[in-house]
Amino acid sequence: MTTINWNEVLDSISENAEEPEVEDRFVKRLLNALGFTSDEWVQQFKTGKGTADFAARKNHDDKFSVAKINPYLIIEVKGRVSGNAIINLAEGTPAYKKAKEQITGYLLAPKCQTSQWGMITNSTDIQLFRKHGKIVLPATDCMRITKDNIIESNCSTRGKNGAINRESLLNRLISS
């Protein structure tokens, strides 16, 4: 069973992290925690309506990282900052509205017809979205991630040593 100590992950991300740092230190670990291996996700996925930061799906008869078709999960990543400006993804902020619009557009794009889930995150805030036909709705509130709440806000159960276990994260993602 894969476990990740999210407190260590958060400690590894600088307060002024730009998007590449959030992708490398947070999102890739999150994908691993969700049970996706490195050949089950890709970066810079062309949706037919823009480029999503990450797309993922479990391998079937092909490797998703090679085939790059029929994604299940689309992730839009923001940095904690862009230049000198803090990126606040709290619900209702301009950055949140833009990210929500992006993830909605990606989930409804031609190359994402099989996508079921979307996520926006900057490693400070995170929110899941669920696609229902041609409608995309928030599946969770936009949650502020802190070292005090990351266990609860991402999976509602705690594993050994404060680590989040993969099954709990998957249950949270799938049952939302």
Labels describing this entry:
seven-stranded mixed β-sheet; 6 helices; alpha+beta; 176 residues; two-stranded antiparallel ribbon; disordered C terminus
Describe the structure in brief.
This protein is an alpha+beta fold and 176 residues long.
3D architecture notes:
With 176 residues, the chain is an alpha+beta fold. It has 6 helices and 11 strands. Strands 2, 3, 4, 7, 8, 9 and 10 form a 7-stranded mixed beta sheet that branches. It has a two-stranded antiparallel sheet with strand order 1-11. The chain is globular, with a radius of gyration of 15 Å. The protein starts with a strand and ends with a helix. The C terminus is likely disordered.
Spatial extent as radius of gyration: 15 Å
Helical fraction: 25-40%
Average per-residue pLDDT, rounded, comes to 85
Q: What overall geometry do the principal axes of the alpha carbons give?
A: globular
Largest sheet: 7 strands, mixed
Briefly note the structural class of the backbone. Answer: alpha+beta
Given as residue ranges, the uncertain stretches (5+ residues, pLDDT < 50) are 152-167, 169-176
- Number of E strands: 11
Percent of residues in beta strands: 25-35%
Q: With helices defined by DSSP (H or I, 4 residues minimum), what is the helix count? A: 6
Amino- and carboxy-terminal Cα gap: 22 Å
Query: What is the N-to-C order of secondary-structure elements (H for helix, E for strand)?
Result: EHHEEHEEEHEEEEHEH
